[in-house]
Amino acid sequence: MANEPQSELMTAEETCRYLKITSRTLYRYLRSRQIPAFKLGKEWRFVRSDLEQWIRNRTKAQLAS
After folding, report:
1. Which residues contact 37 (CB under 8 A, 6 or more apart)?
2. Distances 23 to 4, 8, 30, 50 between C-alpha atoms, Å
3. Is residue 2 in a domain?
């Protein structure tokens, strides 16, 4: 896909496109420490495989409820 990030390491903008969420939602997740991320300088970075695992874990938790 053309919009899919090529790198394992993603910016906040790439992560929003990947997860199909707004930047406001992403930063809300960051503030509440709900999403795996780290800061590189002043910018947040996300590892795609960590995000995929985070999605799987959330899906499992919702199915178990």
Report:
1. 30, 44, 45, 46
2. 17, 19, 10, 18
3. no
User: Both tokens of residue 39?
Assistant: 């800061």
pLDDT band at residue 4 under the 50/70/90 scheme: low
Q: Tell me if 3 is assigned to some domain.
A: no
Res. 35: pLDDT tops 50? yes
List the domain range (segments joined by +) for residue 38.
Answer: 9-64
Instruction: Count up the domains in the chain and report the number.
Output: 1
Residue 32 token pair: 């509440």
Residue 41, amino acid: G
Long-range contacts of 40-46 (CB under 8 A, 24+ apart): 43/11, 43/12, 44/11, 44/12, 45/9, 45/10, 45/11, 46/9, 46/10, 46/11, 46/12, 46/14, 46/15
Chain centre to alpha carbon of residue 20: 10
